[in-house]
């Protein structure tokens, strides 16, 4: 039953067997399809975390580094190496392979909770938001913007709404970033056990997390649909095309969200109780490092985080489709 049919039925008065739009929505959400989507996203989150976590650590350390980049390539590489190996904080002896490997997995405990939960929510709930929007307001997107552009805007809007909900995972992200910045889990665990971390401290930077997630998720899912409809000119794509479309969406997301991500990482990377306002961080960053500092780490993110995000997104959708026993991608 469509929303219009349900509305017409309700206008004529209730009759036996009638199903209201609310019940239709509940029936569409609480079913095997939902389980398959969240289940596929859960396993994809585990695979992504295990495979790409060291690259995530590298990206976070580059964004947190406040050194103004030099113009000479050799000097710039030296600065990046110092940022990655935490010179001046909890320095890593890059000549010791075991120390390097352990350093890149700092915060893995918190990442296990944060990243898997985030990906499960992100790729599991976006299709649900999409269906709820399309069911509740069927004429908003496709009737006004046409099939292709309507699909893009519908997926992007559902992604943006999903991005708002991601803030519930901010405390785990905070603990992950703290461990990555200072190369150890011990101090964070001791602060938690001693009660010296207040609950508000764990929510530091939640507004900037939302500022990053909403446009970033809008671009991620919208970009994937753009690639499907305009680059491949079809919605049901092959596996290779599916991952290529996911990569295009991930690239769009990184470019759009990078300035907010830099500010968020700076705010959350400071010691507990010493974080500054995001606007103060942004002002100091631009004044001391220039406007291009808002794109710090964007090149490594495009090279390594982009494929990581595309991998997680594509795998989640494909696994969900397999669990549903369908050949399509969604």
Coarse morphology: globular
Radius of gyration, in Å, reads 22 Å
CATH topology: Mitochondrial carrier fold
Q: Roughly what fraction of the amino acids lie in strands? A: under 5%
How many DSSP H or I helices? 15
Count of domains: 1
Distance between the termini: 21 Å
Please give the number of β-strands. 0
Spell out the CATH superfamily. Mitochondrial carrier domain
CATH class: Mainly Alpha
* CATH architectural label: Alpha/alpha barrel
What structural category characterises the helix and strand content?
mainly alpha
Quick check: average pLDDT? 77
The secondary-structure element order is HHHHHHHHHHHHHHH
Q: In percent, how helical is the residue content?
A: over 70%
Largest sheet: none
Point out poorly predicted stretches: 1-19
Organism: Vitrella brassicaformis (strain CCMP3155)
GO cellular component, one term: membrane
Keywords: Membrane, Transmembrane, Transport
Subcellular location: Membrane
